[in-house]
């Protein structure tokens, strides 16, 4: 199998310092595997309400300005909805997906009755209200039936974070596959996309690490391969929270080669790499490839 990695941004805004860290890390991880390896870009625009018109193209231009050019045309999730529907129908046929009529308020009230009030920024553990039927409610979403999937905790090895474990049934509950307002949930779309694109290694931000167990459960349920995982350090805002578009992350300035190189050097530093003395983007990227290989030892 050809080593294949990807960068999969959501076009809710232009690239910022945090997203460039993930882009550079995924690119370096592929290039460190040799000339046969492939780096792909996927625009995760399935959540059409949050995505901004033209922003996918803006991100692709920013990547090109930074010398991060994919080895194939980018994929767009909005062009792949038929594949997600096929995956959902397979889970339905296998008894691993069921309709849910609960709103967030319903879930919060059910958790409160159990003495488990939802904490801000914490996981909203689904209590299984609709697992045995809708009880007269209209279906709002489709959920994955964790109780009918593989029992026990999911274990995996992250190349940076080490051994990881999560009991999805206890810590997350039956998670959403297709949302009430129509868009496909991230968990299902990313699993189908990674398999179809032949992704062998996922390199992404550490904030997505706790999604991994859910994705592994879906891979197993759909008979899909599980890639390797590496979760990169997060770039933090002044308040200590993850730098993101929601908390005012500034768009990267890639209008000149000098500005793009400066942004790349900051991303490299966040990854534990020396900024080096290169004055051209291509030279800097070439210097970081062996440094990444020494740091993370990606398999060929």
Could you walk me through the main structural features you see in this protein, from its secondary elements to its overall organization?
The protein is an alpha/beta fold. Helix content is 35%, strand content 14%. The protein contains 9 helices and 10 strands. A hairpin with a 3-residue loop joins strand 6 (154-158) and strand 7. Helix 1 (17-31) packs across helix 8 (257-270), helix 1 (17-31) crosses helix 9 and helix 6 (186-196) packs across helix 7 (212-222). The mean pLDDT is 91.
Strand order, main sheet: write it out.
1-2-3
Intertermini distance: 10 Å
Q: Taking all residues together, what is the mean pLDDT?
A: 91
Structural class: alpha/beta
Q: In this structure, how is the largest beta sheet organized?
A: 3 strands, parallel
- Count the E strands: 10
Shape: elongated
Given as residue ranges, the uncertain stretches (5+ residues, pLDDT < 50) are: none
Beta-strand portion reads: 5-15%
Run of helices and strands: EHEHEHEHEEEHEHEHEHH
Number of helices: 9
Oligomer: single chain
Q: How big is the Rg?
A: 20 Å
Approximate helicity band: 25-40%
């Amino acid at each position: 199998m050809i080593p294949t990695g990807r960068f999969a941004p959501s076009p809710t805004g232009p690239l910022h310092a945090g997203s460039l860290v993930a882009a550079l890390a995924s690119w370096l991880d592929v290039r460190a595997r040799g000339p046969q390896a492939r780096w792909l870009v996927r625009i995760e625009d399935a959540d059409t309400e949050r995505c901004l018109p033209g922003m996918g193209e803006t991100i692709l231009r920013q990547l090109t300005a930074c010398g991060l050019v994919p080895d194939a045309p980018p994929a767009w999730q909005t062009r792949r909805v038929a594949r997600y529907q096929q995956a959902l129908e397979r889970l339905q046929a296998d008894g691993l997906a069921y309709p849910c009529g609960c709103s967030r308020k319903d879930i919060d009230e059910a958790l409160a009755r159990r003495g488990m009030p939802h904490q801000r920024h914490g996981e909203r553990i689904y209590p299984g209200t609709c697992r045995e039927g809708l009880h007269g409610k209209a279906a709002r979403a489709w959920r994955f039936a964790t109780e009918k999937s593989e029992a026990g905790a999911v274990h995996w090895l992250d190349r940076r974070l080490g051994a990881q474990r999560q009991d999805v049934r206890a810590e997350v509950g039956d998670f959403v596959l297709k949302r009430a307002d129509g868009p496909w949930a991230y968990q299902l779309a990313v699993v189908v996309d990674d398999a179809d694109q032949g992704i062998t290694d996922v390199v992404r931000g550490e904030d997505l690490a706790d999604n991994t167990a859910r994705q592994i459960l879906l891979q197993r349920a759909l008979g899909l391969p599980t890639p390797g995982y590496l979760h990169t350090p997060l770039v933090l805002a002044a308040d200590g929270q993850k730098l993101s578009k929601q908390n005012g992350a500034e768009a990267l300035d890639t209008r000149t080669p000098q500005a793009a190189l400066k942004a790349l050097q900051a991303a490299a530093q966040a990854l534990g790499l020396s900024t080096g003395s290169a004055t051209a983007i291509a030279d800097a990227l070439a210097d970081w490839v062996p440094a990444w290989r020494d740091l993370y030892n990606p398999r060929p």
